[in-house]
Amino acid sequence: MEGKSDLIKIMVPAVGGQGGGVLTEWLVQAFFLEDYDVQGISLPGLSQRGGSTVYYLEAHPKPESEDKQIIFAQFPVPGEVDVIISQEFLELGRALQLGYGSDRTTIVTSTHRIYSTLEKLPIGSGIYSDENLRKIATAFSSKLIELNALQLAKDNGMDDLAVNAILFGALAASGRLPLSKESFISSIEKVGVAVKTNLRGFEVGWNSVSSSKDTGKKPVVWETFVRTRADRFEEYEREVYLGKVSRIETEFPGQLREILAESLSRLIDYQDAEYADRYIDDVREVFALDESMKGNLKLTEHFARNLALLMSYEDGIRVAELKIRSDRFKRIKEEMRLRDDQVFKVIDYLKPDAEEIYGLLPNVVVAPFVRIVESSLFKKIWRRKRPVTFAQTPTTTSFSGFLRLWLLTKIKFMRPGSYRFKKERALMDKYKESTLYYAGLDYKLGCLVAGSGAMIKGYGKVRRRTIKAFYRFIDNIIFPLSEFERDKRKNYDITLEVGEEALKLVSGESVEGIDKAEKLAREIMEQRAA
Questions:
Q1: pLDDT tens for residues 238-253?
Q2: Phi, psi of 31, rounded to the nearest 5 degrees
Q3: Environment class of residue 283 by beta-carbon count within 10 Å: exposed (0-12), middle (13-18) or buried (19+)?
Q4: Dihedral sign, CA of 41, 43, 48, 51?
Q5: Which one-letter DSSP state was computed for residue 490?
Q6: Quick check: 89 and 108 in contact, CB under 8 A?
Q7: Rounded Cα gap, residues 328 and 17, in angstroms
Q8: d(Cα 439, Cα 290) in Å, to the nearest integer?
Q9: Which residues pair with 36 in a beta bridge?
Q10: Residue pair 441/492 in contact by the 8 Å Cβ criterion
């Protein structure tokens, strides 16, 4: 714990609407309790719109002479911040990019992510690497304290806003500030916001950092990770899930277990236990190849993660399930800060197109109809280019609106025989076969193909476009280049280079990037042929 001799500068890069102002007020009160002069300010940002915002605080022991006055700065100075408390990992990255971290800075951060708009826009993965953020934070700090405060909050039955109290407890346990634990606790009580919950959160953060300091390791969270997911189910499904998790613990290495446990939870909820078994069977095939090639398991990691997402595609049944879940209404109520005696209405604006609707029907009925619709003769007769859509606005909180969606969820048992499922299953098989085939040629090439599954995302028309982009990526880029290199060069450097560039084009320019990627592949082939 530092002495009371110097000015203390604390920066809180935050996400608007997540309670950064309350966290700053706790700090101000804690310093007041220990006889400090202190100033906390909010810098301009998007505090009311969920965007980036910054709070800044300076504190100094009260001068011995009343003639001396401390003049606090209105803005932080790069390189001179003592403590950075970050609610979210990328917000920490922003602060460090602006130069606020240095070898004098202690960083306390949550590692959970709230993805930025720029990360969500690309059709492939545009998510900034957590590992890169961690390296930067380590390089530009004297001490890095990291914990997934959002997960800790959920594991302990608290909402998202408890993240602030957990970080506050972690800061207190770090010993970086010359304040007692009692002052931290009293400041929460004095501010008076959700005192009981925030005191619990404070203790969670304190204990997490204290236990890490005692053991020199991060707390083991595997059991909590599994239990949190198991608790989503009713008793029978919970036991089924835990039984499957126990099997993956014996069959798969630790590096894969979290991905598999999360995927099993997702797929049992999405369809049933048998569907989850099919997922494990597919992953097992890729894992066996990975082991035989003595790879680093990146192949299986990519495949397991992307296959789970492909298998839980959002059809009308899934959308209906998500719309009527009780935790959705609870979340809306909390976000709107409604009292128990207030009544609220939820209206959902849905606009499914024809394919999304008939995709739910049995394949044996729909497939012949689709063949007619997609024939050249029918297209000459039916010249409409815009898709046929069916706009609906059910009031989900009403009996009739809720009933419509609830009845839709009850046809889940029909999903495996539906037209949409047959198409999606063909895609999954193509993905698995391509991963196995190209990994057999070259491990790095297999990892590239396994990773390309991430380009398939979205709902409705967007998903159909990304599926087409995936097929074109495999058939028109990876296949011809790899065949050429197998016959002419016996290694796959060109395929890897062009494939990686193609993924960047698709990710950076949405699905239109596949046109440029195919053109690039053709030009390479023509140059090599010449």
A1: 999 999 999 999 999 9
A2: -70, -40
A3: buried
A4: negative
A5: S
A6: no
A7: 18
A8: 8
A9: 61
A10: yes
Alpha carbons 145 and 167: distance in angstroms, whole number? 10
H helix runs in 140-180, sequence order: 149-155, 162-174
Residue 287's nearest CA partner among 301, 269, 307 is 301
| Helix (H) or strand (E) run with residue 105 in it | none
Residue-range domains of the chain with CATH: 8-219 (3.40.920.10), 316-420 (no CATH)
Contacts for 434 with CB less than 8 Å, ≥ 6 apart: 449, 474, 478
Pairing of strands 106-110, 8-15: unpaired
Cβ atoms 455, 473 nearer than 8 A: yes
Pairing type for strands 52-61 and 8-15 reads antiparallel
Query: Tokens 């100033």 map to which residue?
Result: 39
| Encoded tokens for 311 | 């298998």
According to DSSP, the residues that pair with 15 across neighbouring strands are 52
Name the least confident of 45-54, 139-148, 268-277. Answer: 45-54
The total of other beta-carbon atoms located within 10 Å of residue 102's CB is: 15
Its sign, for the CA torsion 418, 423, 261, 440, is positive
How big is the chain, counted in residues? 530
Asked if residue 198 lies in contact with residue 156, where contact means CB atoms within 8 angstroms, the answer is no
Which among 65, 88, 282 has a CA at the least distance from the CA of 166? 88
Distance CA 380, CA 322 (A): 39
- What's the sign of the alpha-carbon dihedral 503, 508, 511, 512? negative
Q: What is the pLDDT of residue 269?
A: 95
pLDDT tens for residues 302-352? Answer: 999 999 999 999 999 999 999 999 889 988 887 787 888 888 999 999 988
Locate all alpha helices (DSSP H) within 271-398, ordered by sequence.
273-292, 298-311, 316-323, 326-335, 354-358, 363-373, 376-381
- Amino acid found at 119: E
Provide the 3-class DSSP secondary structure of residue 143.
strand
Q: What is the C-alpha separation between 47 and 53, in angstroms, rounded?
A: 6
How many alpha carbons lie under 13 Å from residue 380 in its C-beta half-sphere?
3
